[in-house]
Amino acid sequence: MTTGMMQAVFCMLLMPVALNAQPGHGGSPGDQRPFERIEQLKKVRLIEMLDLKEEQSIRFFARLNEHDIARRELQKEKGEALDRIERLIRNNAESKEYEKAFDAVISLDDKLISEQRQFLAGLSDILTMQQRGKMMLFERRFEKELREAMREAQRQRHGYPGEP
């Protein structure tokens, strides 16, 4: 898929997000459909980029889903640990209490890194080395394409002409 085609697809997917963010369009902040669409697009792009076969795709996404669940849980715990630090600051806590809270955040960061390392190592029976390399680069590329598409959607919404 060319960059222009990707931007067009992203724009179509993001237009409901942009409209829901506008007052009077009836969109609720809890509406997850646009984000689910982006997740679906992300999966399609991963399949394309990694050139996954059907069985390979099924096994890969099963592992990816498990990894995402574990990662989200760890990120939630880290958020709670950071909330605790915020409360300590508000309450002018003692240094000892900060140290415990800092250790908790650092420990959760270590667990996140370990989870990522285990996930990548665990893909060796599904993906080739080149596919794993592509997967590691995918997130950065996908986020860049998403940002570009969002900027383009915003330009179109405000009537700005596209850049040459």
Summary?
With 164 residues, the protein is mainly α. It is 79% helix and 0% strand.
Which short descriptors sum up this protein?
mainly alpha, single chain, disordered N terminus, 79% helix
Explain the overall architecture.
With 164 residues, the chain is mainly alpha-helical. It has a single domain, classed as Four Helix Bundle (Hemerythrin (Met), subunit A), CATH 1.20.120.1490. Helix content is 79%, strand content 0%. The protein is flat. The chain starts with a helix and ends in a 7-residue tail after the last helix. The relative contact order is 0.13. The model is unreliable at 1-29 (pLDDT under 50).
Fraction of residues in helix? over 70%
Oligomer: single chain
Low-pLDDT runs: 1-29
Mean pLDDT: 82
CATH architecture: Up-down Bundle
Question: How would you summarize the topology of this molecule?
Answer:
Elements: H1 3-21, H2 33-50, H3 54-90, H4 95-121, H5 129-157
Helix pairs in contact: 1-2, 1-5, 2-5, 3-4
